[in-house]
Write a structure and sequence with these properties.
Elements: H1 2-44, E1 51-54, E2 58-65, E3 69-75, E4 78-83, E5 87-90
Length: 97
């Protein structure tokens, strides 16, 4: 009799752990989607002169826009074209001169 009750308790514990794991995954996914949406809003709101970090850690200034790309000025006479998805971060005015 004790072994049957013990097995039932173990099943209950496992079901509780599974439910907790599912709740954690749902909240984790929702917060990740929210961060991604916020990043997309920021990229859509970019203007000429804004400072950005692109993949590879290159810091530059937005020089122009095309369909799905952005021209980034990385030095006095050098501009590169990157996909909007290549923007890693948008720097505030005082960051990384």
């Amino acid at each position: 009799m004790d072994t049957a009750a013990n097995g039932g308790n173990m099943n209950l514990i496992l079901m509780g752990m599974l439910a907790l794991f599912m709740v954690f995954m749902i909240f984790s996914t929702r917060s990740q989607k929210k961060r991604e949406e916020e990043k997309q809003k920021q990229i859509s709101a970019l203007e000429k002169g804004d400072r950005v970090v692109i993949l590879g850690g290159i810091i530059g200034t937005v020089a122009g826009f095309k369909d799905n790309t952005i021209e980034v000025k990385i030095s006095e006479n050098t501009k590169i074209t990157v996909l909007r998805s290549g923007i890693v971060a948008i720097l505030s005015k005082g960051e990384a001169n």
